[in-house]
Amino acid sequence: MRLENELKQIGLNEKEAKVYLAALELGPTNIQNLTKKSNIKRSTVYEMIKNLKELGLMSETTKGKRKLIVASEPENLKRSLKEKERLLTEIMPELKSISNVGFVKPKITFYEGKEGLREIYWDALNIKNKMAYWVSPIKSVMETVGEDFLNKYIEAKAKKGIWIKSIHITSEKVEAYKYLSSETYEKTLRKVRFTPKEIDIKNTIAIYDNKVAVISSRKEGFGFVVESEDYARSMKAFYDLLWSISKPYEEMGFDNFDKKP
Fold first, then answer.
1. Is the pLDDT confidence value at 257 over 50?
2. Does one domain contain both 61 and 118?
3. Nearest to residue 14, comparing CAs of 34, 42, 44?
4. Any domain includes 14
5. pLDDT in tens, 28-60
6. Which residues make Cβ contacts (< 8 Å) with residue 187, sequence separation at least 6?
7. Number of domains making up the chain
8. CA torsion 159→164→168→172, rounded to 10°?
9. CA angle, 153 as apex, 176 and 232 as ends, to 5°?
């Protein structure tokens, strides 16, 4: 299994690696033995032999009237890799000439489902500057990744010494949320403000290093991370504006907030 994994890392697919290793162990052999040894169906073994021949890793010979399959010496792997490196070196100037030189393309990674969205939170723990900026509609967050996970994330973040400024969407406030009150902020390395009640944002937004993450509501169930210095700077300007019109917990008057006049 270890050799199989190593061969996969240098360019063979799983079935090619199995067939090549089987042929190495068997020595000159027929298709029946190779099929049995590799535990791959006969039609697929024929296809893998063809691929390996093209890579210079397998050949055929005859013994009497019998056709035998022969694995090439392992040194051929090294020669094959060197040949690929040589070809890549040759075409590199042409590849660079047709690329969009002068434009830095942002990297965008998409995520789906609860586990996928949780991956975004873990990614936000790998920041360098130890400060992240979140827009947090807590009710939506709990519906998408779960309250227990959110608590675990906040505690893991604090252990790593990462501070966050978090803007809670007041219309999405959850009264029973464990880390709602200001008494918990210092312990969990958070600075928190609440938006004016008329602001309704369902998507969670995180800005950290040169990345911006957006997590949808449970209804849509997707998220993405954009890795772009310019986009992160622009979203930070939006964040600072939202922060400036939001207020600390103590100034919100939540006791009377939901009461109608």
1. no
2. no
3. 44
4. yes
5. 999 999 999 999 999 999 999 998 888 888 888
6. 158
7. 2
8. -40
9. 110
| One domain for residues 57 and 140 | no
- H or E stretch covering 83: helix 75-98
78 CB-near residues (< 8 Å, 6+ apart): none
Residues in CB range of 111: below 8 A, 6 or more apart: 117, 119, 120, 222, 223, 224, 225
Per-residue pLDDT at 108 exceeds 80: yes
Q: Please tell me whether residues 224 and 175 are part of one structural domain.
A: yes
Q: Are strands 222-227 and 211-215 parallel, antiparallel or unpaired?
A: antiparallel
- Domain that includes residue 238, residue range: 107-251
CATH number for the domain spanning 177: value is 3.30.870.10
**Do 32 and 161 fall within a single domain?**
no
Give the chain's length.
Answer: 261
The model's pTM is 0.58
Q: Is the residue at 85 inside a domain?
A: no
Helices vs. strands in the chain: H and E counts, helices first? 10, 9
Contact between 110 and 145 (Cβ < 8 Å)? no
At position 239, the amino acid (one-letter code) is Y
Selected residue with higher pLDDT from 199 and 249: 199
Tell me: do 151 and 240 sit in the same domain: yes
| CB of 45 closer than 8 Å to CB of 34 | yes
Model confidence at 80: pLDDT above 80: no
What's the whole-number mean pLDDT along residues 68-76? Answer: 84
CATH number of domain containing 55: 1.10.10.10
210 in any annotated domain: yes
The CA-atom distances, in angstroms, between 220 and each of 43, 77, 203 are: 43, 47, 10
Same domain, 148 and 62: no
Q: What residues does 190 pair with on adjacent strands? A: 164
* pLDDT band at 73; cut points 50, 70, 90: confident
Does residue 82 belong to any structural domain of this protein?
no
